[in-house]
User: Fold this.
Amino acid sequence: MVGIISNQGFIARIGGDEFAVILNNIIEKEQIYTFSEKMITKVKEEPFIVDDYELFVTVSLGISVFPQHGEDCKTLMKNSDIAVNHAKDMGKSKAEEYNSIMDIYSYKRLSLENDLRKAINENKLELHYQPKVKVSTGEIIGAEALIRWNHPDWGMITPADIIPIAEETGLIHSLSNWVARKVCLVLNSWQNEGLNLIPISINISADRFISADFVPNITRLLEDNKLDGKWLEIEITETSILANQSLVEKTINELNYLNVRVSLDDFGTGYSSLSYLTRYKIHVLKIDKSFIQDVSVNSSNSTVVKSIIQLAHGLGLSVVAEGVETPEQLQFLKQQECDEIQGYIFSKPVPVSDLLKMLRNRVLKPNVEKQSFYENKRNYFRVELYFPMSSQMTIIKFKDKEIQLGRTEILVEDIGLGGLRFLSHLLLSVNHDIIYEFEVEILGEVFNLKGRIVWKEENEEGIFRYGVEFLISESEREVLAKILNNLSLQIRKNPLVPNCRLVQSNKYSYIKNQIKNNNTTS
Ligand code: C2E
Ligand code: CA
Ligand code: CA
Assistant:
């Protein structure tokens, strides 16, 4: 390694398995990447010999450049650290340059990574349950357990954040055990109280499903809690079935022996080979919500859903439609004789106490009221933008700590004196202790406005909409009022007002592209 660096810079061990390299006399950025490649290859190719063992290791590199990514040592180190975490996310043997768009994301991820193990051990995770409803009668005939984590700083964390971290860190095993145990305890307590049981399903990742102690653990849990296997169901995805086919088959057979049913989750999204529907002894197909979403308007998806239901019935499988939100979708699925429905139209995932209340009635009615999330949420007047405004956001205060992070692009949909509304791919929490700063350009004038997130809503797959309440002084508000008045007058004449960084393309595609570009820049 020292050889690669030679007289170009320094290398030092800064702790554990972390090293820092300083390169000087860099004229072109390309040089940094050539250098990184050399380091990665060198480490990968040459084993370390410890006693008689050859150890192969890999290295991930995070790059920050002076002065672009920081003007002092502390900031440069911190940003390299963020970059190295991003590099690890991207897989092994990767070099990533610090990129401010990753900032809030990386910061959050780093903090969650640090806390997850403790949260599992200290029983800080929770399960929410979403009922499955029999289409013909409206009766609740099952529920799915879905993990949640009410993090003290980041608020309610959903599986989209938890599962990838758990999988990467190997915590998925203890997490899955925790989920299975918790569900068995709940069923056991219902059984002891003489309540009617319903089957509860749990989600199991590929790694966990084929690990040697998975079935023994389930067997023990059922025994310890005196439960018949029919009350516990396992959901696996299409993709995990492909991982190791003979092991998957063996596991499914062993579960069947325990009377535990297996469902195929997210059906249609992975590599949908029909051959495994006959090969594996699964009982239920769950049609992914992406097919259900536009079922009543999109005839090609309607055809797909119709065919899946027929196919499944032909094979003697039961069908669950996921993500059912509207009466039209429900109506369509009823006509197609879909067996079960799981979706917001009946209920969101709820804590166990709420599920119990629902179970008292047994029957759920579809909730047909349109939800209005952000109407009348602000007292001050606001300017609705026809084209969203590309703006920058950063966190400036985290609890009582002032912090310095890079900026992330967001799209502002409306702005008023009280706050603004924006779209982002980042999942953030409604937490009054996290203070953000928004840089918006209105008619050529740049404003830095402090605020906090007061509500959020998941909009499209993976895109979030947030409501922000400003934390600004009266004098700042006065200045803002003048320019916003001006803005609203101009918008009436021409929605595409100049000098506001307005985005003309479709806002959702714009954000999705942002994520894509962000993942490919290196
Ligand atoms: P999934 O297994 O497909 O779970 C269904 C997801 O769809 C849940 O999201 C649920 O809240 C959401 N959903 C249900 N009905 C609707 C609807 O009408 N509209 C919309 N837009 N969404 C609906 P959630 O809870 O965020 O879970 C996401 C994924 O995380 C799950 O997808 C599952 O794959 C995974 N997951 C959750 N808990 C666990 C766990 O304990 N272990 C493992 N390995 N994965 C888990
Ligand atoms: Ca599932
Ligand atoms: Ca699913």
The first strand starts at residue 9 and ends at 15. The longest helix spans residues 172-192.
